[in-house]
Amino acid sequence: MKKIVQFMLFLGLMVLFVPTALANASKENVVEGADLTNVRRIAIAAPLYTPVKDDPTKEQLLQYAYGARDVARTYVVSYDEVVADILKDTGIDIQSLDRREAAKAYRDYVGRVADAYVVITVANNSRTVFFFDLYRAGTNELLYTFQIAANRSQEDNEETYTILSEQFYKNFERAANRQLKNKD
Q1: Which residues contact 137 (CB under 8 A, 6 or more apart)?
Q2: Which residues of the chain form beta strands (DSSP E)?
Q3: CA torsion, points 153, 154, 156, 160, in degrees to nearest 10?
Q4: Which among 61, 154, 165, 168 could bridge 150 via Cys, Cβ 3.0 to 4.6 Å?
Q5: Structure pTM?
Q6: Can you list the domains of the chain with their CATH numbers?
Q7: Has residue 132 got a pLDDT over 50?
Q8: Rounded CA gap, 130 and 132, in Å?
Q9: β 41-44/75-77 pair status
Q10: pLDDT in tens, 63-87
């Protein structure tokens, strides 16, 4: 009987602590004075990312970040939608411009379709680290930053990139909800 109780205690502790040990390391920062509660639409900007070896391409990264929007209550506008709107409204094809000119054209236009935009930066070292920087559209004021690192056991693939992107949306909404509660 004593061995059964010990085994059940061990099993219970494992159930409690294993998910915590396997969680991705993350860090968030809400910029002082930033109001996240009025961000209803987020556009995805071109990522700062250079794929290595067999890692997903920039286009795939954009697709994974947009695909992860299902966990968000905020409306997410894809990069391709914004690019198509810029071409339609201004006649500027930002995909044919160099990176800096394209980023400027994107920042100047994105306020028409979203309240904020997120720039994803990916660092591929021994562990893949995502940095999400959320800016207010129109003013380009930094509102929120989120950093998350993949576990060493996670491959650089669609599943990992989608999980990391989902965590951004979830944590952003938690931060906005905390601000909303603190306003009351």
Answers
A1: 43, 110, 111, 114, 115, 116, 117
A2: 25-30, 41-44, 75-77, 116-124, 128-136, 142-149
A3: -170
A4: 154
A5: 0.83
A6: 25-183 (3.40.50)
A7: yes
A8: 6
A9: parallel
A10: 999 989 888 888 999 999 999 999 9
